[in-house]
Fold this sequence. Notes:
Blueprint: E1 2-9, E2 14-16, H1 26-36, E3 40-44, H2 45-50, E4 62-66, E5 78-80, H3 83-92, E6 97-102, H4 104-112, E7 118-124, E8 132-133, E9 142-150, E10 160-167
Enzyme class: oxidoreductase
Pfam family, one: DHFR_1
Catalytic activity: (6S)-5,6,7,8-tetrahydrofolate + NADP(+) = 7,8-dihydrofolate + NADPH + H(+)
Amino acid sequence: MKVSIIAALGKNNEIGKDNDLIWHLPKDMKFFTETTTGHYVIMGRKNYESIPEKYRPLKNRVNVIVTRQKDYKAENCVVVSSVEEGIELARFEGETECFIIGGGQIYKHAIEADLIDRMYLTHISEGFEADTHFPEFDPEGWFCKGLMSHKKDEKNPYDFVIDQYDRKR
Length: 169
């Protein structure tokens, strides 16, 4: 089973502010939805709670929430106490590729603990004010291939590219 990260980053690795997204890019959101549908998505509790209620849990996916809160409940979601436990659950259930979808602390732990095989990173051409950033990683340890390039248009206010990074093993 592949363990993948999927994230969108501003040009200074920013990913969020006040527990929310800092841009609206429907074309990137469509890529996220198409890529993760039918799979396990692993996220931190605050990330889950930042999803607008009408979209929770993310449909057609197994939503796995990582939290230290022993009594945390979220309807139609699986609650675990660690990223590793979420990955093991997905593996046990026969998943082929599970996705870590945030937030910042979850991404940082997954990269530092060497849990990741692949990353799908949307690189937005602008910088934003943020309080949460994607962790630094050594690009030398990864093969990178471009998946999509999109110029800003009436619906997507920023240029962006989506790259796939596969770990060199």
